């Protein structure tokens, strides 16, 4: 029992350390969000006539931009991050989606992917950083998750250098055929719109045999906002995706993933929280 407790404590420490790293890595999202709401005069819009009445992001934009404009969903994402730091209080409401604006593209004249593709040294550093995250994460996942038993053919979509597939096949000799499928500009699913995610999942559904499954490892937002480290790390990462890559790319909740899976044709959805930041999501055909 002492040995098992020691292993459990090590894994808990590793998970906490990973969350702390993600929170610090995305900490820039907090001052950026605070600067944004101040420049937009969001507090003034909420405090009109001296009344601190709860308003939706759409209602706030109506006060700020009476003639239209702005993106209510993205404002909601910014405000939700600031709720974690006690700057605003959250009252759940439905957000209205407006047309996409890519902040990175607006600032640099092109999207982040094409921008970095022209800078090999930066792209190489990004690949090394992703590998630095992937290897320890996958080792922890493979220690706790046994969903690769019985699989003979495994396709890693968006597998980058193939290190994830290599680690899986080393542990599971039953995986006789491994296919690493990627493009230079792939970062799925968090950098994609709902429509793009749905199309990809539909294609996966068509390619799978009956009884096959789609396994996704992606950040999963909590339904409710709180002040714990996991929520801060996830919401900070969500703002990073919104500003650096695509405003409609986003971190999703478990329910949002489930709805995408059902829409793609999958009959069963199951979330396995082997990691607090990026759990395993199974979609069964």
Give the topology, please.
Layout: H1 2-25, H2 29-40, H3 42-46, H4 57-64, H5 72-83, H6 103-108, H7 112-117, H8 120-144, E1 153-157, H9 163-171, E2 177-181, H10 194-207, E3 213-217, E4 220-221, H11 229-244, E5 252-253, H12 254-264, E6 268-272, E7 280-284
Parallel strand pairs: 1-2, 4-5
Antiparallel strand pairs: 3-7, 6-7
Helix pairs in contact: 1-11, 2-5, 4-5, 5-11, 8-9, 10-12
Number of helices: 12
Number of domains: 1
Q: Could you tell me the CATH topology label.
A: Rossmann fold
CATH architectural grouping: 3-Layer(aba) Sandwich
Biggest beta sheet attributes: 3 strands, antiparallel
Question: How helical, in percent, are the residues?
Answer: 40-55%
Please tell me about this protein's structure:
With 285 residues, this protein is mainly α. It has a single domain, classed as Rossmann fold (3-Layer(aba) Sandwich), CATH 3.40.50. Helices cover 52% and strands 10% of the residues. It is built from 12 helices and 7 strands. The strands form 3 sheets. It has a 3-stranded antiparallel sheet with strand order 3-7-6, with helices on one face. A two-stranded parallel sheet has the order 1-2. It has a two-stranded parallel ribbon with strand order 4-5. Helix 2 (29-40) packs across helix 5 and helix 4 (57-64) crosses helix 5 (72-83). The longest helix has 25 residues, at 120-144. The chain starts with a helix and ends with a strand. The model is unreliable at 94-100 (pLDDT under 50).
